[in-house]
Design goal:
CATH superfamily of chain A: Beta-grasp domain
Number of domains of chain B: 1
Radius of gyration of chain B: 16 Å
Structural class of chain A: alpha+beta
Shape of chain A: globular
CATH class of chain B: Alpha Beta
Strand order of the largest sheet of chain A: 2-1-5-3-4
Largest interface: A-B, 16 and 29 residues
Order of helices and strands of chain A: EHEHHEEE
Number of strands of chain B: 9
Radius of gyration of chain A: 13 Å
Helix content of chain A: 10-25%
Number of helices of chain A: 3
Distance between the termini of chain B: 24 Å
Number of domains of chain A: 1
CATH class of chain A: Alpha Beta
Number of strands of chain A: 5
Oligomer: heterodimer
Chain lengths: 102, 152
Amino acid sequence: MATASTSATAGVSPTAAQVLTVRYFAWVREKVGRADERIEVPASVATVGDLVAWLTSRGPEYAAAFGTAGVVRAALDQTHVKPAQSLAGAKEVAFFPPVTGG
Amino acid sequence: MTVRVQSEPFDVGAEVAALTAGREDAGGVVTFTGFVRGQADGRDLAVLTLEHYPGMTERELERIDDEARARFDLLGSTVIHRIGALSPGEPIVLVVTAAAHRRAAFEAAEFLMDYLKSRAPFWKKESFRDGSERWVDARDCDSAALERWQSR
C-alpha cells in the first residue's frame, strides 16, 4: 500500500521518516515476538491504521498479530485512540488486545 | 484520590482508614474487592497473571478517577490494582469510595469498576492445572456495563 520509496537513513531530507517507539502487550506481544521496538516509519504512514497496514506487510509475525481486523486496540502516547488517529507528533504507539482487568 | 498498581496484596481496612482519616463528613464508604476465581469454564485455575502497560495504566486510572469525581459527589477514592502472578482466592482489585451519603459512594464504586474493566490497560492470562494457558477474552457484558453510564 505504500507507494513512496523512502530513504532508510534518518535525516537525509526535511521529510525524514518519523521514529516511533512501538510497544506490544499480551497476545499481540507474543505473536509479534517482542515487547517493543524503535521503528522508522515512512512519511506515507499518516495514521494509526496506516501503521497497522504497514507493519502487517513487514512479516508473518505482524500479519499473525494484526490478522483479525478490528480486534487489536491502539494507544498513542498512552491514550486510547481509533485507527483514524494521526501519528503527527507522536512518540510512542502501543498495540494490545481489548483490556481484561478488574 | 489514590491510584496504585502493585504486586503486593492490599489491606482493605487500612485503605478505608487512610481514606477517612481526620474527616467527619464521610457518611458512607463503599469498598469493592475483586478476587481470582478458582475455576474458568469448568477448568481448575493454577495461576492468573496480570500484565499491564506501565505509565498508561496509572494515567488511565487517574482519568477514570477524575471522571468519577466529576459525576458523583465524592469526598475521596482509592483504586488499587495488582499485577503479576496471582493464585485462586487472592484479591486482584480494590475500589474504595467515600461520600457524604451512601448513594454517591455506591454508584461511584460501580462506575469506577465498570470503567476500569473496559479502559485500564490490564490483560489476564489464565494458567490451568492441566498445563494449558490462554489469554482471557474481553467480555461483551463489560462493554455493555460501560455503555449504561454513557447514556446518562
